[in-house]
Amino acid sequence: MNKAINKIIFVDDDKIQHMINKKNMLRIKPDLELIFFQNPFSALEWLEVNATDLLLLDINMPEMSGWEFLDLLEQKKIHVPVNMLSSSMDPDDIAKSKDYKMVEGFLVKPLQVEVIEELLNPLE
């Protein structure tokens, strides 16, 4: 992905992850627009009428899984680049993520500064 990232949507039920990611991302790119959702249904509603450069999506959430969220994005014909978020590198999850065209990557939480820099500053 060589497109500049200016707006990122997070869908993750973990408030602490939101705080850590916001702090680290804005330190790297202060003008970045970050929007956080703990509730995946609210995020879906938002994505139906708004665009974003990147969606960071947690796999394990209480209301619905990241996989169910991806299925709903496809049903609603919402096309957005997605990186899956997980606290483990489960080979089954990594394999499953390849079933979705919109999934561009798989990131381990908590996001490390090096990973954020790579995400925000893709090589041209």
What order do the helices and strands come in, and which of them pair?
Elements lengths: L6 E5 L3 H14 L4 E5 L2 H10 L4 E5 L7 H10 L6 E5 L4 H7 L5 E6 L4 H8 L4
Parallel strand pairs: 1-2, 1-3, 3-4, 4-5
Describe this structure in a few short sentences.
The protein has 124 residues and is of the alpha/beta class.
Key traits:
5-stranded parallel beta sheet; 21% strand; Sig_transdc_resp-reg_receiver; Response regulator receiver domain-containing protein; CheY-like_superfamily; Bact_response_regulator; 124 residues; alpha/beta; Rossmann fold
Question: What do you see in this structure?
Answer:
Pfam families: Response_reg. The modification 4-aspartylphosphate is found at residue 58. Residues 7-124 form the Response regulatory domain. This protein is of the alpha/beta class and 124 residues long. The protein has a domain at 21-100: Rossmann fold. It is 40% helix and 21% strand. It is built from five helices and five strands. A five-stranded parallel β-sheet has the order 2-1-3-4-5. The radius of gyration is 13 Å and the shape is globular.
What gyration radius follows from the Cα positions, in whole Å? Answer: 13 Å
Topology as H/E string?
Answer: EHEHEHEHEH
CATH topology of the domain at 21-100: Rossmann fold
Helix content: 25-40%
* CATH class descriptor of the domain at 21-100: Alpha Beta
Query: What's the story with the biggest beta sheet?
Result: 5 strands, parallel
Residue windows where pLDDT falls under 50 for at least 5 positions: none
CATH superfamily of the domain at 21-100: Response regulator
What portion of residues belong to β-strands? Answer: 15-25%
Shape: globular
What is the terminal separation in angstroms? 9 Å
